[in-house]
Design goal:
GO terms for molecular function: ATP binding; ATP hydrolysis activity; transmembrane transporter activity. Pfam families: ABC_tran. This is Peptide ABC transporter ATP-binding protein. There is one protein chain. With about 250 residues, the chain is an alpha/beta fold.
Length: about 250
């Protein structure tokens, strides 16, 4: 398929996409009885978009995130991220792409409990080669960006759930990634804290970060400009291209 002409692979007036999925499938269980987790998904996400990917448990959301985030490889189809054809990259180059061009946010924070917020965020730059002083300076800036400039020296057990998720987001964006992938970022939070995280994701997007949010929360998804819906591993709806998604069912 040609990204310039196929409507499922581009948005009106867009430049080249940051994420391109062309007929992507992922099967598990071996060749004898493969189980499809994702089936023939074709779509794209443009630089600067804020997108929700929704669907019930088992719909393929996490599989799709793992594929976009280079944590897994497709059984078939083509994936291009930030101009890189993932099939052409070895594990070392995939790791470099993740480290320098992507940020990840997960439901359960994954913070080091005995470490301050500042150093939890600075650790997100460990593989950049920056000296410790520079890593900590950038971490401080990132924590100020997410509204935690007054919590630099606090450890995770001294923070609320919403604050811990803000630390996790600061760690994900401290390296200025082009793409932020958030997997159920409000799933462990109450509604007020979750709403504040959604507001933060909007602000990060306003500053130029492409944000993709995996969620089963329809209210969260409704607050984002674009929504892709999965069911049984298939893309069944796309608010940007509803007819294209329906045609692929």
């Amino acid at each position: 398929m040609n990204v310039r002409t196929d409507p499922a692979l581009r948005l009106p007036g867009s430049s080249s996409p940051v994420v391109l999925l062309d007929g992507v499938s992922r099967y598990y269980g071996g060749s004898a009885s493969p189980v499809p987790a994702l089936a023939e998904v074709t779509t794209s996400i443009t630089y600067g978009e804020l997108v929700a990917i929704t669907g019930p448990s088992g719909s393929g959301k996490s599989t799709l995130l793992n594929l976009i985030g280079t944590l897994d490889r497709p059984s078939s189809g083509r994936i291009i991220v930030d101009g890189h054809d993932l099939a052409a990259l070895d594990d070392r180059r995939l790791s470099a792409l993740r480290a320098h061009r992507m940020g990840f946010v997960f439901q359960h924070f994954h913070l080091a409990e005995g470490t301050t917020a500042l150093d939890n965020v600075a650790d997100g730059l460990l593989y950049t080669g920056l000296p410790r002083r520079e890593r900590r300076a950038r971490a401080g800036d990132a924590l100020h960006t997410v509204g935690l400039g007054h919590r630099l020296r606090h450890r995770p057990h001294q923070l609320s759930g919403g604050e811990r998720q803000r630390v996790a987001i600061a760690r994900a964006v401290v390296g200025d990634p082009v793409l932020l992938l958030a997997d159920e970022p409000t799933g462990a939070l109450d509604s007020n804290s979750g709403g504040a995280i959604v507001d933060l994701l909007h602000r990060l997007n306003d500053n130029g970060t492409t944000v993709v949010v995996i969620t089963h929360d329809v209210q969260l998804a409704a607050r984002l400009p674009r929504c892709l819906s999965l069911r049984d591993g298939r893309l069944i709806a796309d608010s940007a291209y509803p007819t294209a998604a329906e045609a692929s069912r």
